[in-house]
Specification:
It is built from twelve helices and five strands. The termini are far apart. It has two domains: 217 residues, Rossmann fold; 66 residues, Helicase, Ruva Protein, domain 3. With 302 residues, the chain is of the alpha/beta class.
């Protein structure tokens, strides 16, 4: 598709004179445009749900989730992937993000890197996608335009395997949509600044990625109610949060929750110890039997 024909490249008639507005009016206009993003994401919720269910099933069978993109899209993928291991205590390689140009592109623009489909395929292969028994892997290709060659090359490579492919774009009927098993396309329309997809399209992308990673973790048992029971306790703030999570889940005060955390070593173990009145060894054995799914364990044993 010709770039000029993309909605993300169109000129926004509402902001044609934004450079002449008083600052507060300028901000109101930007805010009005940003308010449209959530509505665009609402329309594609069924597609997001389909993706979450499919990824969760593959996670339960040992699969991993890969993100690939260029520029803003690639950076958003890296951001989401990097936050999941400490939030949900999953192995670092469960969420793997690749950006065109490599890690230096996180800080320094490397737009020319996005023009090579061969490099996209090569980078995905080098990351070990769908190799060595990992046929249950999933690839999410991210590009607001839906036509980035680097991402298209990666999607084509992924389709050679029994992997799941998902296209996350912000335009209708894109090339990437046709190259993936599932298409998620919140249509955010012309940008506030013509072609600056770090704005509305970037916001929509971030919302969708948040939903996917959080939804998959909920579906695979990393959450109890709305509590992050898989969270790592790697600093004082997180230890305090962990104690409050244990207190909320069990009804004990924070001092007792602190003792339970110290004795159990992890939030989940501490909760099981208190809820089932058992010691750490027995709690860990029960969690292992339920593959770490605290909700499933307690629903069956209380």
């Amino acid at each position: 598709m010709n770039l000029a024909a993309l909605t993300t490249e169109a000129r926004n008639s509402r902001t044609e004179h934004i450079d002449q507005l008083p600052t507060l009016d300028m901000l109101r206009l930007i805010n009005d445009e940003d308010a449209k993003v959530a509505a665009a994401v609402t329309i594609v919720l069924p597609d997001i749900a389909k993706a979450i269910d499919a990824i969760a099933q593959r996670f339960n069978n040992g699969g991993r989730l890969f993100y690939i993109g260029a520029g803003t899209s690639g950076r958003l993928g890296v951001l989401d992937a990097s936050e999941c291991p400490p939030t949900f205590s999953v192995p670092a390689d469960f969420f793997h993000a690749i950006i065109a140009g490599g890690d230096t592109a996180l800080r320094k623009s490397s737009e020319q890197s996005e023009d090579s489909p061969e490099q996209g395929a090569a980078d995905l292969a080098a990351a070990g996608f769908a190799q060595n028994g990992n046929e249950q892997d999933t690839l999410i290709g991210i590009a607001a335009s839906g036509r980035t060659p680097y991402v298209l090359g990666a999607l084509a490579y992924a389709r050679k395997f029994d992997a799941l492919t998902i296209a996350l774009t912000c335009v209708p009927d894109s090339q990437m949509a046709g190259a993936a098993d599932i298409s998620i396309a919140p249509i955010t329309g012309p940008e506030i600044l013509t072609g600056s997809t770090r704005m509305k399209a970037g916001t929509a992308t971030k919302l969708v990625l948040n939903m996917i990673s959080t939804g998959v973790m909920i579906k695979t048992g990393a959450v109890y109610g709305n509590l992050m029971v898989n969270m790592q306790t790697t600093n004082a703030k997180l230890v305090d949060r962990a104690e409050r999570i244990i207190a909320a889940a069990t009804g004990v005060d924070q001092a007792a929750a602190a003792r339970l955390l110290s004795e159990g070593g992890t939030i989940k173990t501490a909760i099981v110890m208190q809820k089932l009145s058992i010691d750490r060894h027995a709690a860990e054995a029960k969690l292992a039997a339920y593959k770490g799914n605290l909700s499933a364990l307690l629903n069956q044993n209380l």
